[in-house]
Amino acid sequence: MTGFLNIDKPSGKSSAYIVNGVKRLAGSPAGHLGTLDPFASGVLPIGLGNANRLFDYFLTKKKTYVARFYFGATTDTLDPEGTRTEGGEVPAEGEICNILSKFEGEIEQMPPAYSAKSVGGRRSYELARKGETPTLSAKRVTVDRFALLGQVGTHEFEFEITCGAGTYIRALARDLAAALGTLGYCTALRRTASGIFTAETAVPPDKLTPENWRDYLIETDSVLPFPAVFSEDRRLFQGQKVETDLQDGLYKLYDRGAFYGLARAEGGLLKAEKKLC
């Protein structure tokens, strides 16, 4: 069984927990296409079978979040689950709006200490939990849109953020607060889109049953924005390159009308790249 389930992950559950539930339900290997922290909710695309081989492709897709930031305190994890420290003032809406553009475009971002970054072969969060200070390096990330939606409490503001791979929303809360001369952390986070997968079409995991889960399965080729190429040349499906007049790039490859996987055209030659059927 190959394809995708667009899961609406509830807060309080890890991405791994949800994936394991899908594995048991479908009786198939499965993996998510970009994790969500346990406190976060929203779009968690899960690939079944060979669809997992598209992880790298979906990792680069834009993601959209609705987040709530608390100003005037922080936690060591930069989310509601950490140890809290008070400090700083609550900024005015105008102050926040005036500075948001500094966090758009390509920016340098230091990953949170409580993250899955590898430090000397160990996860950063493992070191942080033991009271050690992980040595992390700033990374360049892209934030396409960082908009204030409004104030939702005495200390809390809601934002909508569209960003690229590797962006930590918790770190944005920390850095925005620091730029405003205060402390801050992320109190709530919901992913509303991950590439073509959106919250409007996502299904809560508790709605899936052994009888109905296939009704929610999204065919692999339907989510790939590549032109199609149909071939009956057996050499192509045996790992060989064949001549083509196609422009260089990726294509959805079909074997006698049935979806096979991805093929790459380059320099007048076409080769099957990923078998996804």
Note down, in words, how this protein is organized.
The protein is mainly β and 277 residues long. It has three domains: 3-61 and 196-222, 2-Layer Sandwich (Pseudouridine synthase), CATH 3.30.2350.10; 63-194, 2-Layer Sandwich (Pseudouridine synthase); 226-275, Archaeosine Trna-guanine Transglycosylase, Chain: A, domain 4 (Roll). Helix content is 15%, strand content 38%. Strands 1, 2, 3, 4, 7, 10, 11, 12 and 13 form a nine-stranded mixed sheet that branches. β16 and β17 (258-266) form a beta hairpin. It is elongated and about 70 Å long. The model has no long low-confidence stretch (mean pLDDT 92).
Short description:
With 277 residues, this protein is mainly beta. It has helices at residues 15-26, 55-59, 93-99, 124-129, 169-179, and strands at 3-9, 30-32, 41-48, 63-71, 73-75, 84-86, 105-109, 118-119, 122-123, 139-151, 156-163, 184-194, 197-198, 228-231, 242-243, 249-255, 258-266, 269-275. Helices cover 15% and strands 38% of the residues.
